[in-house]
Amino acid sequence: MSEESESESEVKHEPSYDKFICPLTKEVMRDPVTLEETHNTFEREAIEDWFRDCKRRRVKPSCPLTKVELRSTHLNPSVALRNTIERWNKRNDATLLEFAHNSLSPGSSESQNLFALKYIQDVCVKSRVHKHAMRETNLIPQISSVLKSNIMSVRCKALQTIRVVVEDDDDNKEAVAVGDTIRTIVKFLSRGLMQERQEAVMLLCELSKIESLSEKIGAIDGAILLLVGMASSKAEDTQTIEKAELTLSNLERFEANVLQMAKNGRLKPLLRLLLEGSPETQFSMISFLGDHAFSNNEKVEVATTAGYMLVNFMRSGTREAREASLKTLNQISSCEKSPNILIEAGILPPLVRDLFSVGTNQVPTKLKEFSATILANIVASNANFKYISLDHTGRTLVSEDTIHNLLQLISNAGPAIECKLLQVLVGITNQETVMNVVASIKSLGAITSLVQFIGDTQWEIRLASVKLLKNISPYMNRELASILCGSIGELRNLIKIIIAENNGISEEQAAAIGILAELPVRDPRLTSCLLNEGVFPMIIYKVHSIRQGQCWGGRFVMPYLEGLVRILSRLTYVLESEHDSLTIACEHNLTALFTDLLHQTNGDDVQIISAMALENLSMQSIRLTRIPDVSGHSGCGLFQCFFNKPTTVPPGLCKVHNGICSAKDSFCLLEGKTVGKLVGCLDHANEKLVEASLSALCTLLHDSVDVEQGVLELWNAHGISPIIKVLIDNTTEILVQKSVWAVEKILRTDDISNEIADDQDMLTALVEAFQHGDHKTKQVAERALKRVDKLPNFSGIFQKNQS
């Protein structure tokens, strides 16, 4: 016998009588009726089903007990029997209710609890009257107390029982809400056992159908958070998710609950109130959104659903409503996907109007700050602002007068607005509209005031100004160079940013180095200023730190390194005029440094700059090569011009430069093991790198050096074929010019000429250059073709004095 059966046997109830039992259902009758012909008694519903079945089978109706066919199916209510059964039920119900009371009291066993709860469910399902009895006999608090049982099966049964007791009975729902029962039910939502969570959410769904309990459920800490989590969970079953959704839907009747849902990531109810609610409700919702921290997905959801509404409030609402909507727009516009949605909603015209308003129409500074921040976020989206009108005149954000107004506002605004408007200009100058900003800066003479922001104490302002100057530096490099040279303080501020010792390379450093890197590389005045400030040794230290892996900074490392190398390359343009530059280049062995950068760096731009710097260094080799006095006389000095070099080079000396060379002191490409690395760059996909590398190699073929030895060095480095291939590929005009010049020099060496003279592709490329090149290229191509006997030496195409 089960424990539940044992509990049932403990109940001392009055047994049923045979006449109470329906012959068809075998259960106690509730509505007994008697057949008029046979006087047999049945449950009304059962006998009526019997007659319907007879009809369906197309047989005459009969008595289920006697099988006698009936002339009439008339049924007489058995009133006396029904009254007797009802009195019997009442006596037993009273007995069972008393037993239930006792079985749910503290100290009762699990079996007693389960039997009592099952009995309560059964009687409540049978009749609403019994639900009333649960309330009248004060059983509901006892059922609720069992929720705290330490036995899971009892707790689950109690949750089920309460749900049955309160279904379609608002009074019972209210009775359950007395005390802390609802709080206890909510706690089940966080339990690890799925069955308890399922029963709890089904009960809460039922309770939330009346308004008073909806408010009470929502007010319990964590209730809405748990329900939102269940509704969006992938771990719960379908029914649980559905019940959680229905419960939340019921809770939406109260504004406080809606706000709680929004705090926990369920924004749709709030957005619905924002769109459909009364003006007071709309203001309340906007105010909440302005103070709420959103995830990126929520920002997009708000922008998509309520963008037009927020823009309308900003355009024509009360001051409080405008402030609330601006605070909200300030938040949601910071997400990458939101700005384009807000632009479609028409945000730009009222935004710019508020920023530029003056006099009696001027908006408070606080609102202007919000407007400036939103505009900065909008511009960061990289939308094409050339085609977005601000008014009926067709004025746009990048129109000259708009940018004029922005620049003037920057000079008159406080730090918060200054910073955001600088960011706006940064956004505009990141696009093809950069020239609009450049033109306005030039016409207003605003470049000086913009440069002054480099020294601002506020990091955000400093960063925005440096990024802006970086963007415009390619178009205003001479103006910037002039200002920095004329104001050493600003130059020092820029240098301070560049060489700052941080944990890694910052965006500010990458932008600051970009400004200096864009300034004219051949400007001797600026290079002199940088020398005076001791910049170049610090730059070299930074380059070595990056190459040794001592600096990190993600996406900013390569731009920063490129800027460092570009600035360092300035030294190679003033080696003859600035003695200090020569000293630094020698002390720090720039030949080796640029060679390593050429070979070991992934960035094309760094390699291009390095190749160009190596060309400049190599051009100084003949001047710096030490020519020994082979005759034994010492009257010639250390540095000789090429035309005084000895006709025979002693062993151990550089054959190309005819003297004592080194990579460190005379920048010799041969001593620096650089030739092979330059040759390796000739088949690179980047034409600029090929051009720079070829130019550097051509320094070994200049008339100021031993050209034949230069050609042999290229041959030994397997560089002849790549140079010819550059000529054959004919990719750019500059490469054709340089490769034709180099091939002509190569063909002067008979041994090499004999090796390559039959290369038909090369000959075709030379003929092409001779026929279609510019004046100088035709001359050089003609000389090259003569050397391989493809043109007669008496050709009159060019004057002899032009060759």
Automatic annotation (TrEMBL):
Record EC number: 2.3.2.27
Highest taxon listed in the record's lineage: Eukaryota
Keywords recorded for this protein, A-Z: Transferase
One example of a Gene Ontology biological process annotation: protein ubiquitination
Pathway per the UniProt entry: Protein modification; protein ubiquitination
InterPro entries attached to this UniProt entry: ARM-like, ARM-type_fold, Armadillo, RING-Ubox_PUB, U-box_domain_protein, Ubox_domain, Znf_RING/FYVE/PHD
Molecular-function GO term, any one: ubiquitin protein ligase activity
Location of the U-box domain: 15-95
Any one Pfam family match given in the protein's UniProt record, by short name: U-box
Secretion signal, residue range per the UniProt entry: none
Catalysed reactions, as listed in the record: S-ubiquitinyl-[E2 ubiquitin-conjugating enzyme]-L-cysteine + [acceptor protein]-L-lysine = [E2 ubiquitin-conjugating enzyme]-L-cysteine + N(6)-ubiquitinyl-[acceptor protein]-L-lysine
Protein name: RING-type E3 ubiquitin transferase
Natural source organism: Zostera marina (Eelgrass)
Classification of source organism: Eukaryota, Viridiplantae, Streptophyta, Embryophyta, Tracheophyta
